[in-house]
Write a structure and sequence with these properties.
The chain has 203 residues and is of the alpha/beta class. The protein has helices spanning 6-13, 27-34, 50-57, 69-82, 114-126, 160-166; strands at 40-44, 61-66, 87-90, 102-108, 128-139, 171-184, 188-200. The chain has a single domain (6-19, 32-200), classed as Vaccinia Virus protein VP39 (Rossmann fold). Helices cover 29% and strands 30% of the residues. It has a 7-stranded mixed sheet. The radius of gyration is 15 Å and the shape is globular. Bound molecules: S-adenosylmethionine. The site of S-adenosylmethionine has 19 residues, from helix 1.
């Protein structure tokens, strides 16, 4: 995985006509979203837009950004096909800044190099409104033993201790590493070790 230029790496991966991670939303994200009342949601690193399109269909006002212009084009096309509206733009986690705060933010498989992750995660926490919710799912360190997807570098994978430190200003409601079966397009298939977080910005 090239981390010096995530846009060109992911443009190449998203180049095919079909979707890489499927058209349906991530299951953990969709389940957590059901517990919340629709408002403004941000999806950084949303790729081909499966989660943005789902959230828009549930009545959320959706903002997303991704380093891949091909991903953003596919996300907008997916939204148009489903008859929903999303604000999707090209942007880099290193520099993207919002205009307003959000009721919810979801990070799905946005695995970043450690220095960027350590800078980005606390910034994301500050983009939540008081009472706003953060939802995160990604691969845990044990994923190196599986072939169901994710980066093959230990320092890009999520431990619960890492996330609790990154999001120290939030009230953690759930933070676990557990095994589950993935069925999300050709690149997320089979048994996986996942780290999952739900946290709330204090009122
Ligand atoms: C594994 S994909 C997940 C896509 C989407 N969240 C999903 O679950 O279907 C990782 C995504 O993160 C994006 N990404 C990687 N590094 C990024 C960065 N520095 N800034 C913004 N997006 C980035 C990639 O372009 C890609 O779309």
């Amino acid at each position: 995985m090239r981390q010096d230029d995530p846009g060109s790496f992911w443009n190449a991966r998203f180049g095919a006509e079909s979707t890489v991670y499927g058209e349906g939303p991530n299951v953990f994200f969709a389940n957590q979203l059901e517990a919340l009342s629709p408002g403004r949601i941000l999806l950084p690193g949303d790729g081909e837009g499966r989660n943005a399109v789902h959230a828009a269909g549930q009545g959320w006002s959706v903002q997303s950004f991704d380093a891949s212009s091909v991903g953003v084009e596919k996300a907008l096309a997916h939204a148009a096909k489903r008859g929903v509206s999303i604000a999707a733009e090209v942007g880099d986690a290193a520099s993207w800044e919002p205009q307003e705060a959000f009721d919810a933010i979801a990070l799905c498989y946005l695995h970043l190099p450690p220095p960027l992750r350590a800078d980005f995660h606390p910034r994301v926490a500050r983009w939540l409104k008081p009472g706003g919710t953060l939802i995160l799912e990604g691969f845990g360190p044990g994923q190196l033993a599986f072939t169901s997807g994710g980066p093959k570098a230990l320092d890009m994978l999520f431990t619960t201790a890492m996330l609790e430190a990154d999001f120290a200003g939030l009230e953690v409601q759930m933070c676990v590493t557990e095994e589950a079966d993935l069925d999300e397009g050709p690149y997320h298939q089979g048994r996986a070790e996942l780290t999952r977080l739900v946290a709330r910005r204090p009122l």
